[in-house]
Amino acid sequence: MLRPLIPAQLEIDTFQGTAYIGVVPFKMRKIRPRWLPSALAVSFLETNVRTYVLYNNEPGVFFFSLDANSLSAVLAARFRGAFMGAFQLDGTGDIEGTKSVSWTVDRDTPDIASPLLSGGRLYFYKGKTGVLSCLDAKTGEPHFSTQRISGIRSTYASPVAAGGYVYLTDRDGTIVVIKDSEELNIVSTNSLGEGVDATPAPAGDQLFV
């Protein structure tokens, strides 16, 4: 039941043969950027829905959704895209500035589309655009950064990987295929002739759109 919802490169982590979904509600208290006066800090409720996964036998968490009841918090999180980072799983408490933080990125990150993790590489758009970056998932070092992809201008669908290629989908139905590699190499461009907002689903040698 969960398998179609999880990226192909991730293995579902089970306990005694059973996979679990967690619904985690919590309250964020007095959240603000460091430069903002404390009087303008906001508190809000947040809920995430997640399950547990493995990547190269390393445990992690896959989030299906992150929801908050504060419009200002959502807008702030989406300003210039979202914050991304890689963190050690053994970190506890306030880990900022510690070795538990492997790397972070807070510019040119995606808005709606999720990043794609494939072959140790992390592909992602800038906001809702077709400007693409690719990082080393372990170090955060860029393989290529903020590259405009001809034919991809507006994106809701996430990049997907299959058969050594990455598929990039524009909202107008254009699909650009690039090699799944450290260098940007465009293989082909195709148009479906109709709009696409949902993320395509690869299965075997087919791509369902």
Automatic annotation (TrEMBL):
Query: According to the UniProt entry, where is the signal peptide?
Result: none
What is any Pfam family matched here?
DUF2071
Q: Which Gene3D superfamilies match?
A: YVTN repeat-like/Quinoprotein amine dehydrogenase
Q: What is this protein called?
A: Uncharacterized protein
Q: Which InterPro entries match?
A: ADC_dom_sf, DUF2071, Quinoprotein_ADH-like_sf, WD40/YVTN_repeat-like_dom_sf
Which SUPFAM superfamilies does the entry mention?
Acetoacetate decarboxylase-like (SSF160104), Quinoprotein alcohol dehydrogenase-like (SSF50998)
